[in-house]
Amino acid sequence: MKDALFVYSPEQLGYKFSESHPFNHKRLILTMDLLKKIHALQDDHIIPARMATDEEIALAHDRKYIEIVKQAGKGLLTPQQTVSYGIGTEDTPIFTNMHEASSLLVGGTLQAVDAVMQGKSRHALNLGGGLHHGFYGRASGFCIYNDSSVAIHYLRKKYDVRVLYVDTDAHHGDGVQWAFYDDPNVCTLSIHETGRYLFPGTGNVTERGSGEGYGTSFNFPIDAFTEDESFLMIYEKAMREIFEYFKPDVVFTQNGADAHYLDPLTHLYGTMRIYREIPKLAHKLAHEYCDGRWIAVGGGGYDIWRVVPRAWSYIWTEMNDLPAPTGPLPKDWLEQWQTESPVSLFQNWEDPIPLYEPIPRKLEIEEKNAQMLQKALIILHGEIGKNKK
Amino acid sequence: MIVEEIMKTNLKTLSPRDTVKEALELMKEKHIRHIPIIDENRKLVGLVTSSTLKNKWNAFSNTSSSESEKIIEDVMIKDLITAHPLDFVEEIAITFYEMKISCLPIVSGGQLVGLVTASDLLYTYIELTGANKPSSKIDIRIEDKPGILSDILVIFKNHHANVLSVLLFPDSKEENYKIVTIRVQILNPLSIIEELKKAKFNVLWPNLPGITK
């Protein structure tokens, strides 16, 4: 069995709203090329994405909505007709063949699921997926079909396993959370910048699930300007406690790379350090609790030149038990992409020091985050947690 | 917004002849804290709440058997504050605040027709702020004079951005200014913010003293 498989098809780049839209899957090429140039990724690691069928997409989406997406992608509908479905907006404009492109991202994640569940590899990565904002009958925040929600339904239905979904995108993983809000066999864990200003606004600690699923949604809203230490303290504590509490059969991680200081859309102050550590712990706990079963997808990440390729490479090297790369980036990678990049590429795997001016109220932010962490986990230490065990 | 739009109508009720034990069990089973007590004509005659039961016996779960066999009529609140389905939500909010109550039975035509709890009221507030739908929030400090809101919203209109809520409140620091908080259904508000700034609006981005990004 291989350590890991990498899902990719060039057609996944067809998920493209416009030249100027911040969501740009050129990230996939930049990351793959970087991995190839450090000899971490070979051709026999790569499996193609496939189109998800309508039945599969309908596991998490309304048939009527799927029909709207199809027709919009064929140019049969105007934005006025689709806007109530969240399509044809500035965030999620209509583009040609949007159904096919979206289905391929969903199918890519299903390929990753099958690879792991059928024992072809211990772990699998579909960086084209991670579209966590998609709702049952509505597109939202750049996401048309929610590959992660479809894949988790698929895991439940086809393999009958308990799934832990971990979302470290800077935006709350709302679509996935609401899809499984009352399902006790799917636990969602999302760390994100607080919704006080940032989209989508939800993801408060008090969102804990409902009905049978009460106690299987966890939210860790961190303050704007949160830095590495505080982010990682929360991530580590939350991961260890929730793995131990929920005891999943498989872990599914969404790896948005937009909590970095340079990301234009968010206000967190992460550095490359968090992206080195995030997959490390996910990997370790996947082996401790899930017999290694770990499926990872991409997500947000809008500094596609300086941040995303390095951040996402760490997931793949970790999956393959390779040491996290350090030092200078490959010369040929820098030379090839600097010509296209509108910004100066960083020369090393590590961020330059210092990346930003010191934060004046660092201690207060850390203190506030620590309080939030306690509140979010209180349910594991109170009566409800005891009853469950 | 009127009360009948937010009140709960699918209510668990008991009769004055039922026992305290039944009330306690119903509260536990349905995760509720308030039970309206009605007679055979659905006329509201009383209310039991978890806090009044708790206060009476100090400990909720340790109610001794003789006490829990008591009938509800002997323990229920009879001196009730109620509201009408056509009351305004703002009005009952004041009642909640002034009377320090946590639940308000809604009565019409002599019958119990609904119930509003403090949590329902709070949820209505959340809905009013638009915070229950995917959105970004933008705070802007504006001069307190006619026409400004329209100037701002035209920028949102030009971006086809759907506004979920607009709250306007006085600036606590400067008398002639107000803060407008807009929830807008968009992940990427950067182009809107840029235009607001270009039009000389003071956008209060999530900022801390000494930090600009």
From TrEMBL, chain A:
CDD domains per record: HDAC_AcuC_like
GO MF, one annotated term: histone deacetylase activity
GO terms (BP aspect): acetoin catabolic process; epigenetic regulation of gene expression
Pathway(s) per entry: Ketone degradation; acetoin degradation
Domain Histone deacetylase: 21-318
Keywords: Acetoin catabolism
Highest taxon of source: Bacteria
InterPro entries according to UniProt: AcuC, HDACs, His_deacetylse_dom, His_deacetylse_dom_sf, Ureohydrolase_dom_sf
Family: Belongs to the histone deacetylase family.
UniProt-recorded name of the protein: Acetoin utilization protein AcuC
Organism, scientific name: Ureibacillus manganicus DSM 26584
Lineage, opening ranks: Bacteria, Bacillati, Bacillota, Bacilli, Bacillales
Automatic annotation (TrEMBL), chain B:
Pfam families assigned: ACT, CBS
Every CBS domain range: 7-64, 76-135
PROSITE patterns in UniProt: ACT, CBS
Keyword tags: CBS domain
CDD domains, A to Z: ACT_AcuB (cd04883), CBS_pair_AcuB_like (cd04584)
ACT domain boundaries: 137-211
Transmembrane feature ranges: none
Protein name: Acetoin utilization protein AcuB
Native species: Ureibacillus manganicus DSM 26584
